[in-house]
Amino acid sequence: MPLKQSTNIPNNEELQATVARLGQEMQGMQETTLRMDQQMTDMKLMLEQLVKTQSNKGPTVDDHSSYGTGGAANPHPRGNFSGNPYVNLEGFGGFDDNRRLGNNHRIHFPRADFPQFDGSNPFVWVSKCVSYFEIFQIPDCYKTHMATLHFLEEALEWYEGFKEDCPNPQWPMLVEEVLDRFQSYNTSNPVGEFKRVQQTGKVLDYIRQFERAKSRLMKETKIRSTVFFIQGFIEGLKEEIRHAVEVLDPISLNQAFYFVRKAELNLEGVDRRNRNWVKPPVYQPTTQPVKTIPFQDKKLLQLPPTKPAVLPPPNFNTMSRDQMRQLGLCFYCGKKYSQGHKCQKRRLLMLEAMEIEEDVSVFDLPVSEDASDHSKTPVIEHGDISMCLPHDQQGSQSLKFKGYIQNKPILALIDSGSTHSFIHPSIISSVQLQTMPATSMIVKTASGSQLISDQKCDGLQFQLQNHNFTGNLRVLEDQGYDIILGMDWIAKMGPMVIDCDKRCVQLTVDGQNILLQVQHEQAEVQLCEANINASQEWGKGHEVIIAHLFLSEEANSSLPQPAKHILPELNEVVQQYTQVFDEPNSLPPIRVLDHSIPLKPETQPINLRPYRFSHFQKLEIEKIIEELLHSGYIRPSSSPFASPILLVRKKDNSWRLCVDYRQLNDITVKNKFPIPIIDDLLDELKGATIFSKIDLKAGYHQIRMHASDIYKTAFRTHLGHYEFTVMPFGLTNAPATFQALMNLIFKPHLRKFILVFFDDIFIYSQSIEDHVKHLAIALQILKDNQLFAKLSKCEIGTNKVEYLGHLISQEGVATDPSKIEAMVNWPIPKSVKQLRGFLGLTDYYRKSIQGYGVIVRPLTELLKKDAFQWSQEASLAFTNLKEAMTKAPVLTLPDFNKPFTIETDASQSGIGAVLMQEKRPLAFFSKGLGIKNQSLSTYEKELLALVSAVQKWRHYLLGCSFVIRTDHISLKHLLEQRINTSMQHKSLSKLLGLNYTIEYKKGSTNLVADALSRRDVEECHNSELCVIPEIIPQWVVEL
């Protein structure tokens, strides 16, 4: 029976495909096996090399063997494989080859444990880790593992939770997280902590406290000044140590630490000697004859008998303040404290003990060991100087005289306590004197310091009070005088008589008696700012007095204000007219323009009760009334009129008495005299480079009241009833009267070099020569009309002056920073009245602000009836207006000999324009559009901007040709277009009589005008409700 063929046997093609696939897999396995064999061979070679190196050369550190990526952590955290105390860095793959000394030399480091971290002192731990990584050249990929391997206790618990959020943190991230988690925050001020460090015990304890405070200060601030740290260290010392260290003037902290330790040892030695002090036995004369010793030197001075020694007073500086308070002692001098106690002035005392020794040794100097020849030993002289201090610290009893060396003024001191005579090196260099080398001399000063003099100047000729002298002087630095004449010079002068009471010296020179008299000189005081280092000034020879100035309003009101600095040329003019700046001693003269008060018909006298005042205000009122009565400005009254008074504080914090004339002003006929427009006054200043401003003294009081109207000015006080004989403040027509008088007397010179706005007289010129003439003319007019000015409030001959709220200079007109500061600090208005006040203040500078009208429109909308509701839009406008005020540019002054240019633009929300000359702005103009004008077409808006700008500055443009630039090209042909609308009729009628040319300017280049009109366009586009205007012709309506 034949076998049945199985259907599962594959055919030849399938079998071949399977064999091919298996062959490929076998080939891949063979390649993998070869690669693994190669890796095993490499590892075997590395292990053999490692074993060989350990057996022959000792253990080494390998970054791959010490801290593998896949194996367990190295159980030897010291960085080596055995107990060998040194680490061999030869063959270390990550180490810099530059650290190797050669092929056969290796650098060995001591064994170092990796720092462990338990959560305390994180800064110290991080610093140690960084040092460890740098020394052993640990790769970045191992730093985090090594650090966290040595976490203990709290740090380990924290890291277990931290790695759940961040499994593999890098080393910088780990450092940041550790410091944020474990650093202890000190909320105290590091500077204040540094300054509070004081010495209370031993010097070493104080140095440790100082170093800790200094370390924190350097970490948390940028203070790195060595002088600052030295001064802070010295100021914290105890007083007895501080004085000793200040004299030595250390230049580094280490030097200061050394000086302080030496000073403490010296004080401890003095204290031990004082404790061991025993009263000396009373001297008993002996009956034995004293053996005399013949002295070769007959000139030896006899020493005065010594006084019994006195125990030093107790050192109060070592006591705490609580102890001193319990004992009732002064904190500063240690004396008994009582009410009215004054500390005794500290003095500089010097105690010098002299001993006679058989062997006098040379001053200790370092000498070479091989210097055996006595001829090589330096010869050193010794000298003393008792007054080597700045001359302003010597008091008034020193013998100092003024003189000359080759016509150079000098200050000389005759000092009997100095063994030699000295001259300062600055005198040598200034008069170019010849010096020669001299034997080195060590000069000991009264303060204990030692100076070296190795130069001399023989045969120096000098003059003292017109008498000629000659002397041999040594050159010495750091002395307080130009010349010090010591005992060597005094001995050559012969007999000398010193009268200490009259402070004169009488001596004989070449048989002629000469008398030198000490001249009394006034000490010169120079004010220094507080940041100047006091010790540095003292080191320069200056006496330093530290003072605190506290300003009192009551005291400040009575202080005389000094006049400002005046140029010499103009000061001569001011000196010629000093009468103008004197205090008036009589009433003003009767003039044509004496002030009168015309009343409305059928009015009754004003009679109001006085206001109540506090006690101190009554004292001020009494003082002011007394002054006004003494000057004749007021007099007692019996008038039926009576108005209450007010006290108003002036800028200098003094008080001005004002009368509340509001009721009287209501029944007064108003004087319509024109008051100058400020912008018109500023337009006259083009080309001026030097300015002066004269402010009249109580200007209103320099005009008399008309005799028939004096009784109407009556006022009441708690002292009685008075009336003014001069024009008072507060009357409605007083500004008009004053301006009329100023215009009358200065009429020939107005707009030429003088401007007048009430009591502010402004003089401007193009050169200093012209200004001298103009200032003299103005002062002469004031003198002729018996008008007085206040010099302290005047500004004479400056190139920048504040006038009418503007800063005037050669560059142009700028806003007054003090006014801008008031606007910036203005609080958010809570009512319409407060908002009007703010807008009134800012409107004063609208000429200088780009886009003022557009910016302020949300605020002006709130002024409408029942519309005040503060919103986010109003807050934004309020903030933008403040910001615009701080960025106001300097506007140039108009020159009417040059053409003007107007650039205009319009947007959906407003129109804007700028007036320019030579590409510099003179004024800005902007205006927000209402709903009606917002519906106009683009052509009509651009035409409205053009016409509005021309109308705004018409007074500049009349009589001259000017250019109008717009970014609407159709307006360029305005004069050639056919007139179809009423708006075109009105616009062209307003432009009649003007000589202008319209030019097209691309919108992208018309930046200023575009910014003025589009300030708030973005806000308009982003509003939720947009109105689409629909224009319906009239004929459609009629149909």
From TrEMBL:
Where in this protein does the record put region Disordered?
Answer: 56-80
| Domain Reverse transcriptase residues, every copy | 629-808
User: Which keywords fit this entry according to its UniProt record?
Assistant: DNA integration, Endonuclease, Hydrolase, Magnesium, Multifunctional enzyme, Nuclease, Nucleotidyltransferase, Protease, RNA-binding, RNA-directed DNA polymerase, Transferase
For biological process, the GO terms are: DNA integration; proteolysis
InterPro entries in alphabetical order: Aspartic_peptidase_AS, DNA/RNA_pol_sf, Peptidase_aspartic_dom_sf, Retrotrans_gag_dom, Retrovirus_Pol_polyprotein, Rev_trsase/Diguanyl_cyclase, RT_dom, RT_RNaseH_2
Q: In terms of domain of life, where is this protein from?
A: Eukaryota
Q: Which SUPFAM superfamilies match?
A: Acid proteases, DNA/RNA polymerases
- What CDD domains does its record include? retropepsin_like (cd00303), RNase_HI_RT_Ty3 (cd09274), RT_LTR (cd01647)
> Which Gene Ontology terms cover its molecular function?
aspartic-type endopeptidase activity; endonuclease activity; RNA binding; RNA-directed DNA polymerase activity
Protein's name in the database: Reverse transcriptase domain-containing protein
